[in-house]
Amino acid sequence: MFKKILLAGVALLGLAACSNNDEPSRSLTLSDGSIKITIENPEKWSAYVARLAEGVEKRAAALLENWETTVADEFKAREAEESVQKIIDGCTLTAQTISTGRVDDPMALLVGGYGMQAVAGVEIWFGLHSVSDYAGNVLSIRNVYFGSLTGEAVTGSLAATVAAINPEADAKVRRLIGTTLQAVQQSGEGTQLSDAARTSASELAASLAALKPILAGVSAADSEAIVATYVDDVVLPTYRRLAPAASNLADLARALAANPGDTTFAAFNQAWTQARAALSLTAAYTL
């Protein structure tokens, strides 16, 4: 039973692939040489998971602390019109990434002899560039544009401001957010993004970029409202959700390393999914 759990955990990390016996056949060594991982030493896989989760926990805590102590105030103190342009750039870049991205396969790198690139594919990106990750990225764009985490456009948001100036442009962005999210979700987990998803994301990126000249001439008060909504109602609340999710993930990863088994793996699996979903919602944020 544990071997089955181990293989599921490997797949969860994006490092599983099928061989003749349907098991991973290569090993990994962390860059500092501290952990050499093979299918024969499951305790090392658990140790690797714990290290990875602790890194996510530290990253999430640092992001929240930085935004709460300095970055939020500094961002608001900048010239508001320039900040609005940067906010749009963050959303545009995220949409472009989805349109040109692919569902990564770190195991392909591993089997191909690129071990450390495979490790980086997991550690840097906190898992695969998966369909669920890309769906979260679209929601990140939606949250920034609507100025809320609820899916409703609020006063002081990019959406409300654009709608008052150019209703057609606003309607186009809203439509493309919806169609891109739907197309990504319909790609099917574990597969490449569909052509429809890539095309819609590309159109979304173009429609977002087209907002920059529209918003270039808005009043200082409107620009300041967009920035304040972005910081207070989107970025900070998202990081405040991410930090405890990442902390819970690290706790359960340590529990898995200490006592591998059905129960500890199931708890870790749920925490991993929740934390990764929370992190994917930060994709469109920009400084």
Q: What report would you give on this structure?
A:
There is one protein chain. The protein contains 12 helices and 2 strands. It is globular. With 287 residues, it is mainly alpha-helical. Helix 3 packs across helix 11.
The main pleated sheet reads as: 2 strands, antiparallel
Helix content: over 70%
| Category by helix and strand content | mainly alpha
Strand order of the largest sheet: 1-2
Elements, N to C (H/E): HEEHHHHHHHHHHH
Question: For the residues shown, what is the average pLDDT?
Answer: 81
SS summary, helix count:
12
Radius of gyration, in angstroms, nearest whole number: 21 Å
Report the principal-axis shape. globular
For the record, give the distance between the C-alpha atoms at the N and C termini, rounded to a whole number: 47 Å
Low-confidence stretches: 1-26, 123-127
- What fraction strand? under 5%
Topology of this structure?
Blueprint (H helix, E strand, L loop, with lengths): L1 H11 L15 E2 L6 E2 L4 H36 L2 H21 L5 H6 L3 H9 L7 H16 L11 H8 L1 H19 L9 H15 L1 H5 L4 H39 L3 H19 L7
Helix pairs in contact: 2-11, 3-6, 3-9, 3-11, 6-8, 6-12, 7-8, 8-9, 11-12
Please sum up the structure shown:
This protein has 287 residues and is an all-alpha fold.
Descriptive terms for the model:
mainly alpha; 287 residues; two-stranded antiparallel sheet; disordered N terminus
